[in-house]
Amino acid sequence: APTPAPTRASVWTSPVNDFSSLAGMESAGWVFSWNEATTFVAPGTSTRNACGGVPDSSYCGWMGSHAVGQISLQLSGSGYGTIDFGNSHNYASGKVTLYLNGDLLATAGEREVSHTASFSYKDGDTIRLVEDPAAIIVINSIIIKPEAR
Questions:
Q1: What is the DSSP letter of 63?
Q2: What predicted TM-score, i.e. pTM, was given to this entire model?
Q3: How far is CA 30 from the centre of its chain?
Q4: Residue 22: helix, strand or coil by DSSP?
Q5: How far apart are CA 15 and CA 44, in angstroms?
Q6: Spatial strand order in the sheet of 95-100
Q7: pLDDT 10s digits, 54-102
Q8: Residue 35's closest CA among 1, 11, 67, 6?
Q9: Cα separations (Å) of 78 from 7, 36, 102, 122, 124?
């Protein structure tokens, strides 16, 4: 029988690190606070030019009209994670901020397309990336390593 798509990230090999499509990200557990053309900017499209310096294998997207967009992922089990995220926008006061359960972990400023942050997590914790006031969310990679049982 086929294995159902995970609703929460549980192992580092899970599809949470596959940024090839919006549908794939959503089925892996990523939740987007908005739904418009720039929610997922695919490689090879003219809109992707705004994602300057972002590898094709990375996620790139933003909420239009200088609104605040958020992407979240609920984690299961407990362990450690490392995320490489960023902000490809050139707006001086724009930033992408990483939170764990509402606690600030790290911030990527203007044209900072790669910023790495590590964290420990327990069952039900949520990581959230927020772009504010004008930023472009980049996710290069995320590694989730459950604790040995």
A1: -
A2: 0.89
A3: 8
A4: helix
A5: 22
A6: 31-32, 69-74, 126-132, 95-100, 103-108
A7: 999 999 999 988 789 999 999 999 999 999 999 999 988 899 999 999 9
A8: 67
A9: 16, 33, 18, 4, 9
